Amino acid sequence: MAAVGISQSSSFSPDSSKAKGAAASIFAIIDRKSKIDPSDESGTTLDNVKGEIELRHISFKYPSRPDIEIFRDLSLAIHSGKVNYSCFKSNPIKHIVLRIMEF
Question: Could you give the count of Cα atoms lying within 13 Å of 23 in the half-sphere of its Cβ?
Fold first, then answer.
């Protein structure tokens, strides 16, 4: 009985190793020191920030899959003070839109 348990538990060994590696990677990200110092008062402070976001005519393909077009001529306006709900086919597409807005 014990031999069966040991042999079955050994099948989880690769997954356990992956989990340990993933946990180490996550903790490395959490523990790293940010390049941005939130207490630093230097730099330019804008007096009037409107917060409007507009994307015009965005086309996107994954570099690894250039034959599949994710966006073709996407235009999107997000107005300050307004609630915006965007519905895309999948969460990765939402992530792409957010990454484009970061640039």
Answer: 6
